[in-house]
Design brief:
The structure holds 2 protein chains of 2 kinds.
Chain A: H1 4-12, E1 19-24, E2 36-42, E3 45-52, H2 60-64, H3 72-76, H4 84-99, H5 105-133, H6 138-158, E4 167-168, E5 171-172, H7 180-203, H8 206-212, H9 220-225, H10 230-234, H11 242-245, H12 266-288, E6 309-316, E7 321-328, E8 336-340, H13 342-348, H14 350-354, H15 359-369, H16 373-377
Helix pairs in contact in A: 4-5, 5-6, 5-12, 5-15, 6-7, 7-12, 12-15
Chain B: H1 3-13, E1 18-20, E2 26-30, H2 32-44, E3 51-59, E4 63-71, E5 78-86, E6 91-93, H3 102-113, E7 116-118
Parallel strand pairs in B: 2-5, 6-7
Antiparallel strand pairs in B: 1-2, 3-4, 4-5
Classes of the chains: A alpha+beta, B alpha/beta.
Chain lengths: 378, 150
């Protein structure tokens, strides 16, 4: 975080000739939340970007130390609120792993279905917001039209539209809504019809392409070194899809491709997300008619007490690899919890990606990082 | 890659390393003074540990433990490296020049646990306000006004 006096003194400091320090955020429409960037400019060229975080820091890791193994999962919905299902899933699997809880097959399939719906919803929101950052307002409504259908599906089964808290250790909290299959199929049908419009409106738009191509270059080596994951790294040709490399739940049994682009620029990252939505649809289509009958939750004790030890679980959220590291002392609350959030590492590469480019291109670069600030600040 | 080969390699770099295979991954207990040399060797070795995916610290009340999760994007194996630090003067070498992701992660550990990373290019607070006092993730941290513990 940056104190007010520090900003003023930084601006008035006599820097090299023609250098200008500007603040983007914490209340800037393109930062999608309370991210504060202090940018040093030489004319229009970006010399340095310093992110200042913490405007929505809630110390979730400390909070979790006094919550039980059932309770702490609900807090994680508030980190990456756009893929809260997948955050919850990572925590639930980690607790199950420590307790050796066997999850019923039905719950596993429901979890994967919900995760993929969440991924599409998250990418839809990103697509709309990304186009809006670049000055196109219409795609936002197109994307939200489909996203609304997913939100309704979530509302039916989970009782919430954003922070679902649906995954619990041992399975899912409730069984799926009777209309879940029907509504999901209706969504898949509509998505397949309407996704063509995105390509016509955004992807094939020459103004959009020119603003994205060759902007925000991140090489594969740098992507690895900065710990980038998710669509950011896959846009640089780095194979890092946790669903493929370390399959969890039923991902090993479904047929889907890891989307890789080698453009290393903003357009490549854009294409990865658009193509990923199609892969998610593929997964949903394979599973929607094959939800096995049975329990949706395993029988577990009311109070969970994992044995002494350390447990780590990684899952693939819409933004990349999300890791949960639990240190247990055998008690009812975790001794220490660390959340490895994908946005935190992706953001650290922003300075490297934007240096030397024009300030106008910064929004295209930042937009394709798909930053969710509560996920970074935790 | 087998753990045995990695163990042999690490023993060759740092003789004092202690191994533990009871968890999911091979865990190495290293001396803080030997960490930098071990990190450089692991990054450049044939095991290609090029991906530092988690860097954190644990407060054990008597001492602090730095935990590094390393992985390889080529071979997909993972190891965990731990180093115990003195709680009153926690100092360890930075690895931000080996894995650039460590830059932000070390700044986070610095402000939340008070661990000093010698050689870090820009060791300032990242998340907390500049005038914040204390290390919130240490077990003895109490803040009656902004209550974190529930």
């Amino acid at each position: 975080m940056y104190t007010e006096t520090a900003i003023i003194s930084d601006n008035t400091l006599a820097g090299p000739e023609g250098e200008l320090v500007i603040n983007v955020g914490p209340q800037h429409p393109a930062t999608h939340g309370v991210l504060h960037l202090v940018i040093t400019l030489q004319g229009e060229t970006v010399k340095k970007i310093e992110p200042h975080l913490g405007y929505i820091h809630r110390s979730i890791e400390k909070m979790c130390e006094s919550l039980s193994y059932r309770q702490f999962i609900y807090v994680t919905s508030r980190m990456d609120y756009l893929s809260s299902h997948i955050n919850n899933l990572g925590c639930a699997i980690c607790v199950e792993k420590s307790m050796q809880i066997e999850v019923p097959q039905r719950a596993k399939v429901i979890r994967v279905l919900m995760s993929e719906l969440t991924r599409i919803a998250s990418h839809e929101l990103w697509l709309g917001a990304m186009a809006m950052d670049l000055g196109a307002f219409t795609p936002f409504f197109y994307a939200f039209r489909e996203r609304e259908m997913i939100n309704e599906i979530m509302e039916d089964s989970c009782g919430a539209r954003l922070t679902m808290n649906y995954m619990v250790p041992g399975g899912v909290m409730y069984d799926i809504h009777p209309q879940f299959r029907e509504k999901t199929k209706a969504f898949v049908k509509q998505f397949k019809q309407k996704v063509v419009e995105y390509d016509d409106l955004v992807t094939n738009n020459i103004i959009f392409q020119n603003r994205m191509k060759g902007v925000g270059i991140l090489s594969k080596e740098d992507a690895i070194s900065f710990g980038c994951t998710g669509p950011v790294a896959r846009g640089s040709g780095l194979s890092c899809d946790t669903r493929k490399i370390f399959p969890y739940e039923v991902y090993a049994d479904v047929d889907f491709d890891e989307v890789l682009e080698t453009g290393c620029d903003s357009f490549a990252r854009y294409m990865v997300r658009v193509r990923e939505m199609h892969q998610s649809i593929r997964i949903i289509e394979q599973l929607i008619d094959n939800i096995p009958e049975g329990d949706f939750q395993a029988k577990t004790k009311a109070v969970l007490k994992p044995p002494k030890g350390e447990f780590y679980q990684r899952v693939e959220t819409a933004r990349g690899e999300f890791g949960v590291y639990i240190v247990s002392e055998g008690g009812t609350t975790p001794y220490r919890i660390k959340f490895r959030s994908p946005g935190f590492s992706n953001l650290s590469a922003l300075d490297h990606m934007a240096r030397g480019s024009k300030i106008g291109d910064l929004m295209a670069t930042m937009g394709t990082l798909d930053l969710v600030i509560p996920d970074i600040d935790r | 890659m087998h753990n045995e080969a990695i163990k042999d390699f690490i023993t060759g770099v740092a003789t004092s390393a202690i191994f533990d295979e009871s968890g999911e991954w091979l865990t190495v207990q290293a001396e803080p003074a030997a960490w930098k040399a071990m990190a450089t060797a692991l990054r450049q070795s044939q095991f290609v540990f090029d991906y530092l995916f988690c860097l954190t610290c644990i407060d054990w009340k008597t001492h602090l433990t730095m935990v590094y999760h390393l992985s390889s994007t080529v071979y997909r194996h993972t190891i965990v490296i731990k180093a115990n630090l003195d709680r009153s003067h926690p100092v360890i070498d930075t690895v931000s020049d080996i894995w650039r992701t460590a830059d932000f992660h070390e700044r986070e550990v610095f402000e939340l646990f008070g661990v000093v990373f010698s050689g870090h290019p820009d060791l300032r607070k990242l998340i907390l306000p500049d005038d914040f006092e204390g290390f919130p993730l240490r077990k003895d941290f109490e803040d009656p006004i902004n209550m974190i513990k529930l």
